[in-house]
Amino acid sequence: MSISKQDVEHVANLARLELTDAEKEQFAEQLSAILKYAEQLSELNTDGIEPTSHPMPLLNVMREDEARPSWPLEEVLKNAPDEEDGQFKVPAVLE
């Protein structure tokens, strides 16, 4: 399969790109080479290979959500510009 200059123009138009004629030719050649390389995959014998959605097994890498000791409230609010009832006080954003 090859990509024509008209195909590149169509995609460039959809992407709102202005390309010179030289760029259109260059992209057509490069994209055609990429597709030609990808076509080699169809030559591989994939009999007996299970389809996968991901090449590696997916594992949950998140740690358990466990309560841990944290900083003292006084230390956390020490540099706050304003605080009220143990919370940061910020300007209202909604009326």
Automatic annotation (TrEMBL):
Entry-linked Gene3D superfamilies: Glu-tRNAGln amidotransferase C subunit, N-terminal domain (1.10.20.60)
UniProt KW Transcription regulation keyword: no
Keyword set includes Nucleotide-binding: yes
InterPro entries for the chain: Asp/Glu-ADT_sf_sub_c, GatC
Assembly notes: Heterotrimer of A, B and C subunits.
Function: Allows the formation of correctly charged Asn-tRNA(Asn) or Gln-tRNA(Gln) through the transamidation of misacylated Asp-tRNA(Asn) or Glu-tRNA(Gln) in organisms which lack either or both of asparaginyl-tRNA or glutaminyl-tRNA synthetases. The reaction takes place in the presence of glutamine and ATP through an activated phospho-Asp-tRNA(Asn) or phospho-Glu-tRNA(Gln).
Family indicated by similarity: Belongs to the GatC family.
Protein source organism: Gordoniibacillus kamchatkensis
Catalytic activity, EC: 6.3.5.-
Class in the EC hierarchy, top level: ligase
Keywords from the named record: ATP-binding, Ligase, Nucleotide-binding, Protein biosynthesis
Substrates-to-products reaction catalysed: L-aspartyl-tRNA(Asn) + L-glutamine + ATP + H2O = L-asparaginyl-tRNA(Asn) + L-glutamate + ADP + phosphate + 2 H(+); L-glutamyl-tRNA(Gln) + L-glutamine + ATP + H2O = L-glutaminyl-tRNA(Gln) + L-glutamate + ADP + phosphate + H(+)
PANTHER family: GLUTAMYL-TRNA(GLN) AMIDOTRANSFERASE SUBUNIT C, MITOCHONDRIAL
Any Pfam family matching the protein: GatC
Name assigned to this protein: Aspartyl/glutamyl-tRNA(Asn/Gln) amidotransferase subunit C
